[in-house]
Amino acid sequence: PVPPSSCENPFDLVGGRCVFIDPVTSATWNEARYVCQMFDGDLAVLDSVTFYSDLVSFIYEKGLISRDYWVGGINSGLSGQWEWLNGMDVRMGTPLWAIYGSGSSYYEQ
């Protein structure tokens, strides 16, 4: 697919993708995913270093660094393997993991 050249409100164009970052609302992983799906989207899949870097830069540039954000990784349960919502494996050792809980399950982070 061709990356978008612009995004509709409330999305911003980041690394060739339309993203919505809500620095105000506190939510569990499931609640955050539901909000994304209401906008016909889903939680971000950080499947490339470039997109990850672009997203982190955007968060810093907008002054949104005081919060933690959910991404589209999920523990498949049976195997204990983490996957992105698109089915790709989450590479362990990537800087995506929170070091504390947010009131929901630590396993969701």
TrEMBL record:
Lineage top rank: taxon: Eukaryota
Gene3D superfamilies: Mannose-Binding Protein A, subunit A
Species per Swiss-Prot/TrEMBL record: Halocaridina rubra (Hawaiian red shrimp)
Pfam families for this protein: Lectin_C (PF00059)
Phylogenetic placement of the source organism: Eukaryota, Metazoa, Ecdysozoa, Arthropoda, Crustacea
InterPro entries in alphabetical order: C-type_lectin-like, C-type_lectin-like/link_sf, CTDL_fold
Name recorded for this polypeptide: C-type lectin domain-containing protein
Domain (C-type lectin): residue spans on this chain: 14-109
